[in-house]
Amino acid sequence: MTPLAPLPHETTQPKERVAYLDNARFWVMLLVVIGHSLTELVVMNSARGVYTWIYLFHMPFFILISGYTARHYVGDFRQVRRIVATLIVPYLIVETSLQLMTRHYDGEPEHLMILSPQWVGWFLAALFVWRLTTPIWRALKYPITTSILISLASGLIEIPNVLALPKVLGFLPFYVIGLHFNREMFLRLTQLPYRIAGALLLAGSLAASLLFADHRFPTQWLLYRGRYEDLDVSWFEGVAVRGLLLAIGLLLTLAALSLVPRARSVTTVLGSRTLYAYLLHGFIIIYLDRQFGLWATIEPYGATAVLGCIVVGAIVAVLLMTKPVATVFRPVFEPKLTWMFRDPSQDVHHPPSDVPVWKQDLRRRAPATRGDDPGSVAFTRVIR
């Protein structure tokens, strides 16, 4: 039997983080936590309007950035180690803990379903699947078109929730679009005319979401899961609505990206720690809801309760991105796992090279693309 070829590896040191991307992560994480804090209040129009506006683009925003930072994935030693340490391990810890927590309070799920994420763990599972399929999307001739067709078609059939597959396929176009972004596109978006247009578009979409909140648009559409039949529409209507949401999500994502500051600031530092805010905020929300019935208590206060959730949600998100939290939870959510992986320098078949694998590949096949975006290739976080 022929032995498996060793994985390619890189020996270059991680480069400096990109302030613009960390700033973007900070703002989108605020939206994630605020959106989740409003989930139990969507019976009120004010909460429903804000919730709908956030869910129109906050995950497309996050996913597009994740695609951009994954565009040079080749499966080398460092990248595989990062996937295990910052995706697989946190997923197993968080998903198991959250399911045990909800079973304690609600009695569900009756049996642990670790490969079927029930809440925030879905994004880690999705990143894992997307990251492994990155070489495919880089190789296809029409990757964006293909991903859109897959997303539209995924609502036609019943798909099991193994590793959040319905959402993986539904949100796929945003990841693939991110893979084909480059630094110049981000810089162009931050020019003044685009910033003005982006601000107007976001403000107008928020106003529209609040204005039409009482029309009871099914928020399940915004989760990109489930069959169109389950949403009581025909296949044609389902494809049309999903297509419209994809277009709106991309447009609002570009608008939000245009407003992200490029300079380093306190949000840059906080934005480098969004992993902890994402993984921990779910425990806080479930505990406050199940233990104290917080949202049922504040619901009678109407718009005041909604505003309070927005403010407190933002504060909680910021606190979870602070250094003390990162210091405590880094060994848990970003373990080094040196005991698990062999030393790539001992690989006699593929000794370390001073030139990263992806650069060697570009030199052989496409020298003209080497200058595409060398300054942000070695972005070191998977989710942040």
UniProtKB/TrEMBL annotation:
The chain crosses the membrane at residues 26-44, 50-70, 82-100, 112-132, 139-157, 163-182, 194-213, 233-257, 269-288, 300-321. InterPro entries: Acyl_transf_3_dom, Nod_factor_acetyltransferase. This is Acyltransferase 3 domain-containing protein. Residues 19-319 form the Acyltransferase domain. Keywords: Membrane, Transmembrane, Transmembrane helix. GO terms for molecular function: acyltransferase activity, transferring groups other than amino-acyl groups. It comes from the Bacteria.
